[in-house]
Write a structure and sequence with these properties.
Length: about 400
C-alpha cells in the first residue's frame, strides 16, 4: 500500500460484510464451536476435547484458580496491598502509578485506588485517536477523585506513519503500537518519580480468554522496528516522540525500583455490568458501546478490520470470558454475537474519518482488506536476554559454579 493522501475520499461505497454474524450452518465443513463458550475455529489454534469443549474454557479456569480471590480472601489481599503501598509511599507525593484510557477497567481501577486511600499518579498516552467522550470521561474521573494526571501526547504525524507501516505489513495486531507506548510511558514516569508499585486494570473475569492467534507481544520492540524499517518513510530512530522501551531498559527500571505490577481487580467481585453502573453514578462516566471503544481507531479496528480482513470477531473472546465467569449465559452470548458490532451509519462515519486521518483512499483500503495476512514473525522478533547475551550468561553460570566449589 503506497503513500498518498486523500483530500476528499467522497461517498463510502465499501462493502458492509456481516462477518460477525454467527451462522447456524457455516459453509466451511471444518467449522466448529465450543460446547461451553462461543469460541470457534476463527481462532486457528483452537483445540477441542472429545466432548467438544475448547482449550479456552479450561484455560479460563486455570487462570481464575491462579489469580482470582473472592470474598474475605480478596478483601484481605486488598488491605494488605494498600497498607504495603502506603507504608512504602510515606512522605512521597505518589505511592503508586496507574494508566487511564477512559475505559471501564482503568476507570474503575482509579475509583478502587481512591477507596483504598492510595495516592496514584494517573498516566494517559494520547496517540491522536481519543474520542471526545473518552477525553470527557478521563477528565471527570481525575477531577472527581482529586488525582494528578500526566498525559503524554505523541506527535500525530509520527504515530500516523507507524500505523501506516503496520497496515502495509498486513499484520494482525496494529494495537501493539499503542499498548507498547502506553507501558513505556508508564515506566518512564515510574522511574522519574521513583514509584515502585504499578496498578494494572487486567482482570481474569472479563479478559482471561484472548487467543494468541489474534494478538502479538506488546513488548517486542524488535518487531516494531522491523516493520517500520521495511515500510516506513523514515527510520524508527527518527520518530523521536514515540515512547518505546527495549528489554534492557525495562529490566533496568524493574530492578532499579523493584517494580511490582499488581492486578487488584482480580481481588474484588468484578461484575462488568455493575461496575459500569457504579462508575456512571460516582464519576459521571458515559458508555462507549463496546469494550475498548474509547479510542476511535480501536473501535474501527475491532469492529470492522478484524472481522473483515482477519475473519474473527474479538467480541467472542470477551463474551466467552463472561460465560466462564458466570456473568452471562451461553445463549445470551450467542444472541449477542449475531448482532452487528457497528451501527451501519456510525460505521460509515468512522470509516470516512479513519481513512482521511490516515491518508488512505477507498481503493487503497479495499486492497488492504483483501491482502493476505502476514505473521509478525516475518519482520523479526525479540530474543530473550539470555539468547542475546548467551556468552555473558554462560560466563556467569561458570563463575557461579566455581565460586560454589
Amino acid at each position: 500500500m503506497q503513500s498518498g493522501l486523500a483530500n476528499d475520499i467522497g461517498p463510502i461505497q465499501i462493502m458492509m460484510q456481516e462477518t460477525t454474524k454467527l451462522e447456524t450452518a457455516p459453509s466451511d465443513p471444518g467449522y466448529r464451536i465450543c460446547a461451553k463458550t462461543i469460541m470457534d475455529t476463527s481462532d486457528r489454534l483452537i483445540s477441542f476435547d472429545s466432548n467438544g469443549v475448547s482449550n479456552h474454557y479450561y484455560d479460563y479456569f486455570e487462570q481464575e484458580k491462579s489469580h482470582v480471590l473472592r470474598g474475605v480472601e480478596g478483601e484481605d489481599r486488598l488491605k494488605e496491598m494498600a497498607n504495603r503501598i502506603s507504608r512504602h509511599g510515606a512522605g512521597r507525593k505518589y505511592d503508586c502509578i496507574l494508566g487511564l484510557s477512559g475505559g471501564v477497567d482503568s476507570t474503575y481501577l482509579c475509583l478502587l485506588a481512591k477507596q483504598l486511600g492510595l495516592r496514584p499518579l494517573v498516566v494517559h498516552f494520547d496517540n491522536g485517536w481519543n474520542s471526545e467522550l473518552a477525553v470527557n470521561n478521563i477528565e471527570n474521573t481525575v477531577r472527581r477523585l482529586g488525582f494528578d494526571l500526566y498525559t503524554y501526547v505523541c506527535d500525530w504525524m509520527e504515530f500516523r506513519e507507524l500505523q501506516r507501516s503496520y497496515f502495509a505489513a498486513n499484520v494482525v495486531d496494529i494495537e501493539v503500537l499503542t499498548d507498547h507506548a502506553f507501558m513505556a510511558t508508564l515506566y518512564r514516569q515510574s522511574l522519574k518519580h521513583r514509584i515502585k508499585y504499578v496498578l494494572g486494570g487486567m482482570n481474569c473475569v472479563t479478559e482471561a480468554i484472548l487467543p494468541s492467534d489474534w494478538i502479538f507481544n506488546k513488548n517486542d520492540l524488535t518487531n516494531i522496528r522491523g516493520i517500520q524499517s521495511r515500510f516506513g518513510e523514515r527510520s524508527f530512530s527518527a520518530l523521536r516522540s514515540y515512547p518505546s522501551m527495549g528489554p534492557e531498559r525495562r529490566l533496568y527500571i524493574q530492578r532499579a525500583l523493584g517494580i511490582e505490577v499488581l492486578s487488584p481487580l482480580n481481588w474484588v467481585d468484578y461484575r462488568y455490568d455493575q461496575v459500569k453502573e457504579q462508575i456512571k453514578e460516582e464519576l459521571g462516566w458515559r458508555d462507549y458501546g463496546g469494550k475498548h471503544y474509547e479510542s476511535v481507531f480501536t473501535r474501527f479496528y475491532q469492529g470492522y478490520i478484524l472481522p473483515n480482513k482477519f475473519k474473527f470477531d474479538k467480541r467472542r473472546a470477551h463474551l466467552s470470558t463472561l460465560i466462564c465467569s458466570g456473568q452471562m449465559t451461553r445463549d445470551e452470548a450467542l444472541a449477542s454475537i449475531t448482532q452487528p458490532g457497528y451501527d451501519e451509519v456510525f460505521l460509515r462515519q468512522d470509516l470516512a474519518f479513519v481513512l482521511k486521518k490516515l491518508g488512505f483512499t477507498i481503493s487503497q483500503f479495499e486492497q488492504y482488506l483483501v491482502a493476505p495476512r502476514v505473521e509478525h514473525s516475518a519482520y523479526g522478533v525479540s530474543r530473550g536476554l539470555h539468547e542475546r547475551y548467551a556468552w555473558l550468561y554462560w560466563l556467569w553460570r561458570k563463575t557461579k559454579r566455581l565460586v560454589q566449589r
